[in-house]
Structures are given as structure tokens and as C-alpha cells.
Amino acid sequence: MYQTETLTPSAIDLARAAKILRSGELVAFPTETVYGLGGDARSDIAVARIFAAKDRPSFNPLIVHVPDLAAAQDIAIFNDLAIDIAAAFWPGPLTLVLPVRPGSALSPLVTADLASVAIRIPAHPIAQTLLQAFGGPLAAPSANPSGRISPTRAIHVMDGLSGRIAAILDGGTCAVGVESTILGLLATPTLLRPGGIPVEALEAMLGHPLLIGGNANLPNAPGQLASHYAPAGQLRLNVTSPKPHEIYIAFGPGTLSLSATRDLTEAAATLFHALREADRLAGPGGQIAIAPIPETGLGRAINDRLRRAAAPRR
Ligand code: TXA
Ligand code: MG
């Protein structure tokens, strides 16, 4: 049990956060997508602590965060295409799955002993400063208990992980609001998870449609829809006429809405907070319904998260 410290983005607190990370303990920090639960990606103990704090099945590999391309190349092997994609989208909400560089300092727990690694350069200035101050790669899954809604505010992290981690760096609200897009570059570029970079932007850069890959959250159970990002209550999707007892999340005008103006960027940024709010209003075992969201741009990431949030619990 920890007395979880809340840190501000001041120079003193950032130095404190880096020191905690160097001691092998965990610090939750803001990125432009969601809050990450950071630990030293080279330390078996730190990575094991991440799995323990989240109650995460350890076969699920983690994303490694680095400050720049040179640090990324210490860990993974980039071909010309990977370099071009990195130049176009990093720093930003894109994760690339690449071959691990032999002899890299990564803990094998980070990659679940795969020969590939998921890696990204976050754009958030606090994440950048923390990575520089720490001076190494940070493994960072979303800072929530496994299977629950991802955190886009420091208070969300506290709700889920207070007492389970050393510190939380409070950097306000995450601008993107859904996790990074994951692109597999082991062979033909393959979309492994829709996210903060729209698929259309990747396809425009590549000049061809993307292969849609397996379920990035369930490497061992292809075709099965994981219950994930789940509110406590039941969630019904694509609802235009909610039932009287349902808490309704609108897309357009409404008391609880992802975006009053039907803006998908705003909807992505609001999504996880709105699910938490609906959960609170619905109460234990309550029913939540949500409006249809267009399957374009960030709508693809939103619908992916909603399908998982509505999937049967295991
Ligand atoms: O936006 C984000 O990506 C956030 C912030 C904190 O950066 N992080 C995040 O990490 O969402 P996490 O651990 O919740 O998601 C990691 C995903 C999992 O679905 C995992 O299966 C996939 O990345 N992944 C990791 N390594 C992989 C690999 N070598 N091959 C395929 N998928 C991999
Ligand atoms: Mg997650």
C-alpha cells in the first residue's frame, strides 16, 4: 500500500518524479492521449509493478515511450518506411510495432518476450520533460485498473490507482482522449488498434488502404471481443431513442453529450469522462445508452472503445 503522492508539473516535482522512476517505482503521467502508468522499461521489478498495480494479465505487452527517434532506434529496428512514418507522425498519438533491436536494454516483461516492441514518442510537453529528466525508456499502459475506463484526468487515475502506485503527475485534461493508433510494421503495414491518429491520415501518407489486423488487446484470443474500457453499468450502443430508465450519452445536443456540435475530435476527448459520468448517474448496475457515432476519422477509435465497453464481461 502506497501513500500516493500528487505532483505538479513544476521543475522540483518533475525532478522528484524522475527520481521515483529511477528507484523502480511507478509514476502516472499525462500524455496527449490518456494518462500513462510509467515505469522504467529496463527494470523487471518496475514492469512487474505495472502489471501488479493494474491487475493486468502479463501476456499483454506494453507500449514503450521515448523522447526522440534516436532513443527509439536504440530499442527497435527502423526500415525506411518506419523512418518516414515516424517523421510524419511523431511526436504524436501513433504507436509503431517494430522488431526489437537485439541487445536492447528492455525488460523481457515489456514485450511479453515477443521479438517485436510497441513504441511511441508522446507529444505532451509534460511527458516529454519527464522522459528527458528520467533519461530512459518508460513502459506505460493506460493508468487504470485492467479492463476499466482509461483515465483522461488526474482524478480518474486517483479513483482507480490511489494507494497502488508511488505518484501521480497532474497535468490537467488529455487533449486527444483516446489511446494511440497502433500500426504494425513487421510486414505489410497493419492497423492493430484505431486511435488518436485517424486511419485516413495514415492511408493518405502511405498512398494505399491499410490492412486491418488482429485484436491488439487480445494477442492470444483472435476474434474474441474483450470486455475493456468497461463502465460498471450495462452499455447499449447506437441508440436513438433511449428507454426512460437509461442514462443517455448524446452525440449532438443533450444534457450529457460527447459533442453538442457533433465534432468527432471533441467527442474523442470527452468519451472516457462521459462514460464515467454516465456510470455515476446510473448508479451500481445501472443502464447506459449512447447515440450512434459515425465510423470515420476519430469515430473509428470511439466506436472500437464503445464496442469493447459494451462487450459481455468475462
Ligand atoms: O495512447 C496510448 O497508447 C497509451 C498512452 C499511455 O501512451 N498507452 C496505451 O498502452 O494504451 P496500453 O498498454 O494500454 O496498450 C498497449 C497495446 C495493447 O493492446 C497491446 O496488446 C499492444 O499495445 N502491443 C504492445 N506490444 C505489442 C506488440 N509487440 N505487438 C502487438 N501489439 C502490441
Ligand atoms: Mg489500456
How does this model look, in words?
With 314 residues, this protein is an alpha/beta fold. The chain has two domains: 5-212, DHBP synthase, CATH 3.90.870; 234-310, Rossmann fold, CATH 3.40.50. 31% of the residues lie in helices and 16% in strands. It contains nine helices and 14 strands. The protein has helices at residues 11-22, 44-54, 69-75, 80-89, 125-134, 154-161, 199-206, 264-282, 299-310, and strands spanning 5-7, 27-29, 36-40, 63-65, 94-99, 116-120, 138-139, 167-169, 181-184, 190-193, 211-212, 234-236, 247-249, 287-290. The model is unreliable at 216-224 (pLDDT under 50). Bound molecules: threonylcarbamoyladenylate and magnesium ion (MG). The site of threonylcarbamoyladenylate has 27 residues, from β5, β6 and β10.
What ligands are attached or bound here?
threonylcarbamoyladenylate, magnesium ion
- Topology, number of strands: 14
CATH class annotation of the largest domain? Alpha Beta
Q: Structural class of the secondary structure composition? A: alpha/beta
CATH superfamily of the largest domain: DHBP synthase
Relative strand content:
15-25%
Q: Which consecutive residue ranges, at least 5 long each, have pLDDT under 50? A: 216-224
State the CATH topology of the largest domain: DHBP synthase
Instruction: Based on the coordinates given, report the CATH architecture of the largest domain.
Output: Alpha-Beta Complex
Which shape, going by the Cα principal axes?
globular
- Over all CA atoms, what is the radius of gyration? 19 Å
Q: Strand order of the main beta sheet, please?
A: 1-8-2-3-7-4-6-5-9-10-11
